[in-house]
Design goal:
Order of helices and strands: HHHHHHHHHHEHEHH
Helix content: 55-70%
Radius of gyration: 18 Å
Structural class: mainly alpha
Number of strands: 2
Number of helices: 13
Length: 184
């Protein structure tokens, strides 16, 4: 579906992440996983993460690439150390749940009224996230959120890491706007 819409696949990595073997595979290739998940160029995900089988092939071959300018070697090492202690099982459970339909019955039981958010909401998206595309996030969120403010930044997927000061500025400004409007 996404290949027809965008010219490339976006969810191929889900197939790997939802397997029972994924955690062990990712844990055994920490440098490869780090360079896969934090690419120097966001466009890389079009070939390394999006297509079915690409992420698994990347990790199994222990492939690496340079880190992005916004991620220091020290930060990458810290991430790898955390994941070596805690493992990937927990983070991967989200994908397993989504693919296996764990929450389908519960979600179906939620009334339409309760699915809508009637509070001021800030959605921050990025124009160079080729997996979690801004256009899709804006459309899907607008369907459920009545008081939506959207800010689109020029970066890849990892907004808090790539543009932390800009993100903090947006969050503080949004919080101040909400507080002023609540008081007025």
């Amino acid at each position: 579906m996404t290949e027809q819409a965008f010219g490339y696949s976006t969810f191929g990595y889900w197939k790997l992440f939802a397997t029972d073997e994924a955690a062990k595979l990712l844990e055994s290739h920490p440098e490869s996983v780090t360079s896969l998940v934090y690419p120097a160029e966001p466009e890389a995900w079009k070939s390394t993460l999006g297509p079915v089988g690409a992420a698994e092939a990347w990790v199994r071959s222990n492939q690496t690439s340079p880190l992005p300018a916004w991620l220091s070697a020290e930060e990458a090492t810290t991430h790898q150390e955390i994941m070596s202690k805690k493992g990937y099982t927990g983070p991967l459970n989200w994908y397993k749940s989504a693919i296996r339909g764990i929450d389908v019955a519960h979600n179906a039981s939620v009334s339409e009224e309760r699915k809508h958010i009637n509070l001021p909401t800030l959605l921050v998206v990025s124009d160079r996230d080729y997996i979690t595309r801004a256009d899709l996030q804006k459309d899907r969120t607008a369907k459920w959120v009545k008081q939506l403010r959207v800010e689109e930044l020029s970066c890849g997927h990892w907004v808090p890491l790539e543009l932390p000061d800009k993100l903090n500025q947006l969050l503080e400004g949004f919080a101040n706007d909400v507080a002023v409007n609540a008081d007025g």
